[in-house]
Amino acid sequence: MAVQAIDLQVDDVPAATRMLSAAYGWRIVADDPNFGELDAGGLRVMLSREAMVPWGALDGLILHEYVEDVEASARRAVDAGAELLSGPLTTDWGTEAAYLRGPGGLIVDLCRDV
């Protein structure tokens, strides 16, 4: 078994779908007012306004996106609307990383091994 998808609650699904695609290059699979889906390199990122089960704000989840150029990738994400939280910096565990926040509180670590 493998985790193949995550679902994030966002207020504006179409805007979040477009922002995540522009920021990280994720391919849009579905885009309508109540549901968006992106292919993030084999992980499906689903965006919903509502869910069948009660849920609250996202907390404690970080997606790690490995890139060749952390600085350029972070700049593209910020230009698309992501909030730069930290970096680019060199971590204690041997990566160059930039941490960004986007729709639904999603945090993405743009990183590369150094």
UniProtKB/TrEMBL annotation:
It comes from Brachybacterium hainanense. Residues 2-113 form the VOC domain. PROSITE patterns: VOC. This is VOC family protein. Coiled coil: none annotated.
